[in-house]
Amino acid sequence: MDVLEAAEKAWDLVPDPVARPLEEAATGVLAAALAGSLWARDLVVGTADQVVRQVGPAAVRAVLDEMDLTALVRERVDLDAVASDLNVDDVVARVDVDAIVERVDLDAVVERLDLDAVVSRVDIDAVVDRLDLDAIVERVDVGQVVARVDLDAVAARLDIDAVVNRLDLVALANEVVEGIDLPGIIRESSGSMASEVVRGVRLQGVEADEAIARTLGRFLPGRRPRVRPEGAT
Amino acid sequence: MTAEAEDAPAAESSTGRPPRVALPPAARAFQGRRAGVVTRTAASVIDGIVVVALLVGAYCVVAGAKFMVNPHTFTFPEVSAFLGLTSFFFVLVGYLTATWATTGRSYGDHVMGLRVRGRHGRRLGWAWSFIRAVACAVFPIGLFWVLLSRDNYSVQDLLLRTSVVYDWREGN
Question: How many angstroms separate the CA of residue A202 from the nearest CA in chain B?
Answer without folding.
Answer: 5
